[in-house]
Amino acid sequence: MPTVLVVDDAAFMRMRAGKLLAQHGYQVLEAENGLDALNMYMQHKPDLVLMDITMPVMDGITALKEIRQADPQAKVVMLSAMGQQAMVIESIKAGARDFVVKPYDPGNVMASVRKLIG
Ligand SMILES: [Mg+2]
């Protein structure tokens, strides 16, 4: 069963994404900031990471870079808000495989997840 790490500082966003992924048969892990995500990634090596951008302690772009440095094969999808186009471009340059705009459509999230890990 593929594992997806959901990273967002908003608990309701983690819950929403986690529920959606669990309904589609994925195992779900959660992290509430970039540093937590980095630690969880190293510990569990999930198949995919859904990464919020704006978070306390460590933002999503920094976490993306750290994760990709530790594991160049890491698959990370950024969850971006409106007006974060520049950060999305920076993320793609840093190795993010895709992005989904928040508030996201469940169909868009699942399409991105399936495209990357089946
Ligand atoms: Mg946030």
CATH-scheme architecture: 3-Layer(aba) Sandwich
Q: Level of helix content?
A: 40-55%
The total of beta strands comes to 5
- What is the typical, i.e. mean, pLDDT? 97
Structural class: alpha/beta
**The number of domains:** 1
CATH topology: Rossmann fold
The level 1 CATH classification is Alpha Beta
Number of helical segments with 4 or more residues: 5
Share of β-strand residues? 15-25%
Shape: globular
Question: In angstroms, what separates the terminal alpha carbons?
Answer: 11 Å
Spans with pLDDT under 50 lasting ≥5 residues?
none
- How are the strands ordered across the major sheet? 2-1-3-4-5
What does this entry look like structurally?
With 118 residues, the protein is an alpha/beta fold. The chain has one domain: Response regulator (Rossmann fold, 3-Layer(aba) Sandwich). Helices cover 47% and strands 20% of the residues. Helix 2 runs parallel beside helix 3. The longest helix has 13 residues. The model has no long low-confidence stretch (mean pLDDT 97). The site of magnesium ion has 6 residues, from loops. Magnesium ion binds next to loops.
